Amino acid sequence: MFRKILSPFARMFEFQARTHYRAERHSMALTIGIILAAGVGGFVEIAPLFTIDETVEAAPDMRLYTPLEQAGRDIYIREGCYACHSQMIRTLQDEVDRYGPYSLAVESQYDHPMLWGSKRTGPDLARVGEKFSDEWQVQHLINPRAVVPESVMPQYAFLLENELDVESLPARLHALRRVGVPYTEDQIDNAAIDARGQARPETEAADGVFQRFGDDTNVRFFDGRRDRVTEMDALVAYLQILGGLTDLPSQTRSLEGD
Amino acid sequence: MLQRLTIAERQLALAISIAIILAGLLMAAAGSGDPMGPHGAIVMFAGAIVFLAVLRVIQDPEPLENRAENYYDDPTRVGLLISLGWAVIGMGMGVWVAAQLAWPDLRFDAAWSSFGRIRPVHTSGVIFGFGGNALIATSFHVMQRTSRARLAGHVAPWFVLLGFNLFCVIAASGYLMGVTQSKEYAEPEWYADLWLVVVWVIYFVLYIRTLARRNEPHIYVANWYYLAFILVVAVLHIVNNLAVPASFAGAKSYSAFAGVQDAMTQWWYGHNAVAFFLTAGFLGMLYYFLPKRAERPIYSYRLSILSFWGITFFYIWAGSHHLHYTALPQWVQTLGMTFSVMLLVPSWASAGNALMTLNGAWHKVRDDATLRFMMVAAVFYGLSTFEGSFMAVRAVNSLSHYTDWTVGHVHAGAMGWVALITFGSIYAVVPTLWQRETMYSWKLVEWHFWLALAGTVIYVFAMWNSGITQGLMWRTYTESGTLTYSFTDTLVAMHPYYVARAAGGALFLAGAILAAINVYLTIRNVPQKRTEGDYPTPSEATEPAVPVAE
């Protein structure tokens, strides 16, 4: 009986071996065969993600990164933070208990590229926003072991000394719009001013940030320095918005609890 | 060495080097104040070295050699030496990053030396620098021997080899300056990616043209794998790196994909970089050097066919197992898991085929460390593919993901399989290429073997322990239903394993340094001896035109 079950497979393999025996005498036959064989899987798995609507939830309250937060995100990438910190809370009880509601696809809808990460040498950061004060974040970045003695995180004190490059921000936001982030013309044109304004409360520039990005935007002296806008401002502004782009995940969770 | 090029070829090389210098100049001028500026300077410098080297011999007479009588091995030799150089750099960086996790102050407070910036120098250094150069060099060697034909072109192989290394240098120097796309194993920015596409197209054309010259009706199995490596890596590289630069005068770009689609694309790339860079290419090496060294034919032609097409077809689906329990739709996760499990069949078919080939030659495995490198590589290939299929199962993955278990798994493959087969192949091919009697010291090869094996085992055991420990600690609850351990508790528990891992890596690095020394002394000190029959021969001269099987 075993033979009977296996015989169709044996015949199929026999056919494959014969076909291959002929194909391996022609480099182009091999080339085409390889491309076809290797093409199927990727196509079947990736293409539908762009067309099936349920892949990404609808979150009407989803907001965009401000120029300062986007600048902070670029620094997060530049320093390779993603190598040790994930931003993806899995649908597992202990992760929800430790980090908060599990991550939804919509939360990284405008993340070019996504930073879900693959390794947690440090904790997940998907919902780290507003869990710690700005002051804590700055001190922790300056010297992690002064705040958490067991930490193995590198020190990033130099961020506090580096003035933030805001001049390139309009071009950056423009590029982001070209890949699908719906920034308005107004937001792009004023990106440099808004980046400074977000780190300078109670100025005219700060009002512009509220106007263009909503009243809930965090406008603070993130790094505690009042004299200039540093890379530390940008990174802390980014960390403080993580998990705060939409309220949908916490609603989803309470619905399931009911 | 360059005198072997005809004058026309030298002129072409000169023209290409001038074009590269101009491109570098353009980058340096446009990107001043941005990391693109220093990269422009590096490109100019690279172009200038080639320019001067060619200029020195431009007036020399035409070569007298009859090209059809010999293989063209100069690029292979240089490629192998560069590969060994990258091995020492990449593994050295690996030991350093590993040590930083055990002793975080080992970064000396510079911006460029943080874990996040030098980790990709390690990964790219070993994968692309060491592995990539070894693949390019051995592919040149293998395709000529198995086709019994000389390389189709003399400038193209140099362009591929040196162009690829320019890509590696731009990548590694960029990470130190903070230039990265953050896409794992595809970190280099847009201009480096575009350059690699050019290099890769030339590589493919060279490969196909050489195959077209073959004096052998059939294409040997090693070449199937090299071909799959070249083709699929091109597709993966182009799709995964689609991006829009913020400015053509700067390094920063933004990925065309976002969120869940980007995650799937990145792991489709990431896992198939493992499949077609770190597996297919090195299986090409295995299928040529192992039977050659053992002096036994491949055990089964049919197993070769089964495993080749199985790997090519199944692997592509497996990437989504990196995204279990995430926001990726579950149907994709399930597909990824299913195909990962099925992948065990072709993977073990390959490993089994390699080990069965050694039947009748096991006494050689005992006596010859070079062959033992290849044998142990096949064993590790079998072990890590089993582990990979196992970890792709959702329930297992819930424990292993995000922990050091994954890191251990990757290194079982990278050290145990990829590096060991590469070192085995290098020891096998160096005497042939430089026409020496043997390697300088077989004792050094023995030492290297045991250092590498010990290093791998220590590394992998440390990471199994730390990964499983941490995964379990994360999900331990107290009786009252709260989490028992804080994140820092788990970090403290990792420390001894991180020390052990750094030690294991250091042993492995020591072995690589011995290899470099041994190769250097072989070239310098061992008397010459021409390998018999190592030249292109028409098919009719060696066997009947029609294979017996027909």
Structure description:
With 258 residues, chain A is mainly α. Helices cover 52% and strands 0% of the residues of chain A. Chain A is built from 12 helices and no strands. Chain A is elongated. The N and C termini of chain A lie far apart (53 Å). Helix content of chain B is 71%, strand content 1%. Chain B is built from 18 helices and 2 strands. Chain B has a two-stranded antiparallel sheet with strand order 1-2. In chain B, a hairpin with a 7-residue loop joins strand 1 (243-245) and strand 2. Chain B is globular and about 85 Å long. At the A-B interface, helix 1, helix 2, helix 3, helix 4 and helix 7 of A face helix 3, helix 4, helix 6, helix 7 and strand 1 of B. Chain B: Residues 531-550 are annotated as: Disordered. Chain B: Pfam families: COX1 (PF00115). Chain B: One of its GO terms (molecular function) is oxidoreductase activity. Chain B: Its EC number is 7.1.1.9.
Feature tags:
heterodimer, A: 258 residues, mainly alpha, elongated, B: 550 residues, two-stranded antiparallel sheet, 18 helices, 71% helix, Cyt_c_oxase-like_su1_sf (chain B), metal-binding (chain B), cell membrane (chain B), iron (chain B), Cyt_C_Oxase_1 (chain B)
Integer average pLDDT of chain A? 93
Strand content of chain B: under 5%
Helix/strand-derived category of chain B reads mainly alpha
**Secondary structure tally, helices of chain A:** 12
Separation of the first and last Cα atoms of chain B: 44 Å
| Record field, number of beta strands of chain A | 0
Main sheet record of chain A = none
Query: For the terminal residues of chain A, how far apart are their CA atoms?
Result: 53 Å
Keywords (chain B): Cell membrane, Copper, Electron transport, Heme, Iron, Membrane, Metal-binding, Oxidoreductase, Respiratory chain, Translocase, Transmembrane, Transmembrane helix, Transport
EC number (chain B): 7.1.1.9
Region (Disordered) (chain B): 531-550
GO molecular function, one term (chain B): oxidoreductase activity
